[in-house]
TrEMBL record:
GO terms for cellular component: plasma membrane. It is found in: Cell membrane. Pfam families: FtsX (PF02687). This is FtsX-like permease family protein. It is a multi-pass membrane protein. Residues 102-197 form the ABC3 transporter permease C-terminal domain. The chain crosses the membrane at residues 27-51, 77-101, 122-147, 167-193, 214-234, 240-267, 294-317, 337-359, 389-411, 423-445. Keywords: Cell membrane, Membrane, Transmembrane, Transmembrane helix.
């Protein structure tokens, strides 16, 4: 163990004294972990506030037993759905940060394995790197959460703003969040370690992964079908039907992460085949070679598109039609909550895209340098990198739009699609989220010039 610690310290000292982009990679990973922690604590604090306003477990239980469930009791359930939706890109962002940090570490660990390092030594180095980066990022995210609480407290729900005490989570929740972020980093690092331990030569030679399979498409189709049939099989219990509906809704969204890489693999191959310019050809080949990585860089906008579809549907609810004041306030809060969730998802998508694109630039720096030395214009490489974001971004919006239609049309019919106001709001929300993602990709261009 002492030898492993000494080797880890020596490698970090060597990196700090060189211009190896490993340090920049670690900084980006820390930023991603910090964002993950801050957003996680904010959404947990919001859920806790609605839970307390509803009277806790006793108040919610009493409200569910009444003939008509009070609106105050419905807020925690809706906030819980939003939290569960946001947890998907949060986990993706945390895992992406760990994978990005591991991308440069894989080559170094593979070289150590080929030089005679044992599996236990390689495992120790992996855990130390993952824990150090995740811990620093999680601590920074906790500070960011404390700074964001006064800002989030100004949002109005149920006719009033939040008190600071409502959004402040306890020490156990903070510690649990820190442990969760570190655990995500360690598990992702061990996933990369498995490749290094088993095939160090494959990692060192950057072997191309196998092609995607069309069977992935069946997952979303099956989930959408279950979403239609499942609640009807729940019997007469409205609570059970709602629970089944929420679970299947989350599963349907999660299947986009299964279908997305396959769609990008197909789109990448088509883009490369029909390319009429060098930037488009480079972008298509890179997307087809690493569709999972391309999806992770823009997968957040798929969630934003999914939420935008649900939020746009809320505009069909018109509180001006002689409804009770509490019902009108509830409908207004539905829209506010939808836009707030959309804003958080868009922010996560932008950070995820910026971090992943920057990591890919660092990983491909030798290729970029070789192309420049061979006479390739840097402007061509910048255009290829931007198209490497625009093409998957467009495809991910298409995948999410199809998924939203598969979910919403059987439930509410074609009214949202035929309503111009709903369509315009949906397009504006998608455009705003896409703009944030493109801004994140543009920010990664600075790394290309530094690297």
């Amino acid at each position: 163990m002492r030898a492993t610690v000494a080797l880890w310290s020596m490698l970090r000292t060597r990196s700090s004294r060189s211009r190896d982009p490993q340090r920049l990679t670690e900084l980006l990973a820390v930023i991603a972990f910090a964002t993950t922690t801050a957003v996680l604590l904010i959404v947990i604090g919001g859920f806790q506030a609605f839970w307390d306003r509803a009277g806790g477990a006793d108040g919610i239980r009493a409200g569910l037993e009444t003939a008509e469930t009070p609106y105050d009791v419905q807020y925690p359930f809706l906030a819980g759905i939003a939290v569960l939706l946001i947890l998907v890109p949060l986990g993706t962002l945390g895992a992406a940060a760990a994978r990005m940090a591991a991308a440069r570490r894989d080559a170094r660990l593979a070289a150590l394995r080929l030089c005679g390092a044992t599996r236990s030594q390689v495992a120790g180095l992996t855990v130390m790197d993952a824990v150090a980066q995740a811990a620093v990022g999680a601590l920074a995210g906790t500070i960011g959460y404390a700074l964001l609480v006064p800002v989030v407290a100004q949002v109005r729900f149920q006719g009033r703003t939040f008190a600071l005490s409502e959004l402040v989570v306890g020490v156990p929740v903070v510690l649990g969040s820190l442990v969760a972020v570190v655990l995500i980093a360690v598990l992702s690092a061990f996933a990369s370690l498995r490749r290094v331990a088993i095939t160090p030569l494959g990692v060192a030679n950057r072997v191309t992964p196998p092609a995607m399979r069309a069977v992935r498409l069946l997952s979303t189709v099956a989930a959408a079908a279950a979403l239609i049939v499942g609640p009807q099989l729940a019997g007469g219990s409205a609570g059970l039907a709602l629970g089944v509906l929420v679970a299947l809704l989350l599963i349907t969204f999660a299947t986009m992460n299964v279908v997305g890489p396959f769609v990008l693999w197909v789109v990448g191959r088509i883009t490369a085949a029909v390319a009429r310019s060098v930037p488009t050809l480079l972008a298509g080949r890179r997307i087809a070679d690493a569709p999972k990585s391309a999806w992770r860089s823009v997968g957040g906008v798929a969630l934003a598109t999914f939420i935008a579809g649900l939020t746009a549907t809320f505009s069909l609810l018109d509180p001006a039609g002689g409804v009770r004041p509490d019902e009108a306030a509830f409908i207004a809060d539905l829209k506010t909550g939808g836009f707030l969730t959309l804003a958080i998802a868009g922010l996560l998508a932008a950070v995820s895209t910026g971090v992943m694109q920057a990591g890919r630039v660092i990983e491909q720096r030798e290729e970029h340098r070789a192309l420049v030395l061979a006479g390739t214009d840097r402007r061509t490489l910048d255009r290829a990198r931007m198209r490497e974001t625009v093409v998957p971004l467009t495809a991910s919006v298409g995948v999410a739009t199809v998924t939203v239609l598969m979910v919403m049309v059987p439930v509410v019919g074609l009214q949202p699609v035929s309503d111009p106001g709903v369509v315009v709001q949906y397009l504006l929300c998608v455009a705003a989220a896409s703009g944030l993602v493109l801004a994140g990709a543009a920010a990664a261009g600075r790394v290309a010039r530094v690297g």
